[in-house]
UniProtKB/TrEMBL annotation:
It comes from the Bacteria. It comes from Vibrio aquaticus. Gene3D superfamilies: 3.40.630.30. GO terms for molecular function: acyltransferase activity, transferring groups other than amino-acyl groups. Keywords: Transferase. Residues 1-155 form the N-acetyltransferase domain. The lineage of its organism: Bacteria, Pseudomonadati, Pseudomonadota, Gammaproteobacteria, Vibrionales. This is N-acetyltransferase.
Length: 163
């Protein structure tokens, strides 16, 4: 598996991942394309296995290009038939050093990471174990259910990509 920066050639396959992972959401290709075109505010990385995009991660810089960046893990998606294989974990762990390289281009370092996710999403444990995110608060009925806001403070980039 290869984790790499998404290209415009990946949009159609990444949109299939989005459509499969988030069935209530619509206009997958248009939504991803908008984010893709907002580089470097949005940094999108894909997981590729044998020329097939099986997952992606979107990192978003919050509140401007700052010397100490606050990122949001905006979205993490893996094809349903590939879930439970460690792809999401690898997307987080292997893309973060690539994100910090992009931040360095603007003279910035990583400070904190925000994550919002459904309160019942088992991925909370993934965010805790990979980046040290902790639940700060619950936001009632934000999207389709209650959401939790998680924050990973003073993030240390994982160096072990053997996940």
């Amino acid at each position: 598996m290869i984790i790499r920066l998404m290209t415009d050639h990946d949009l159609a396959q990444a949109a299939l991942v989005h459509q499969s992972a988030f069935v209530r959401q619509k206009h997958s290709k248009e939504w991803l394309e908008c984010n893709f075109n907002a580089f470097p505010r949005y940094l999108i990385y894909v997981a590729e296995i044998e020329s097939e995009i099986v997952g992606y991660i979107i990192w978003m810089q919050k509140s401007g290009f700052r010397p100490e960046a606050v990122l949001e893990l905006e979205q993490l998606a893996v094809m349903p038939n590939k879930q439970g294989m460690g792809i999401g974990r690898r997307l987080i762990v292997e893309s973060l050093p690539l994100v910090t390289e992009q931040l360095a281009v603007k003279g910035s370092t990583l400070k904190h990471i925000l994550v919002t996710t459904r309160a019942d999403n088992y991925a909370q444990e993934l965010y805790k174990s990979t980046i040290g995110a902790e639940v700060e608060t619950t936001i009632s009925n934000l999207y389709s259910a209650d959401e939790v806001l998680m924050v990973a403070r003073n993030v240390v980039i994982p160096t072990d990509s053997s996940v």
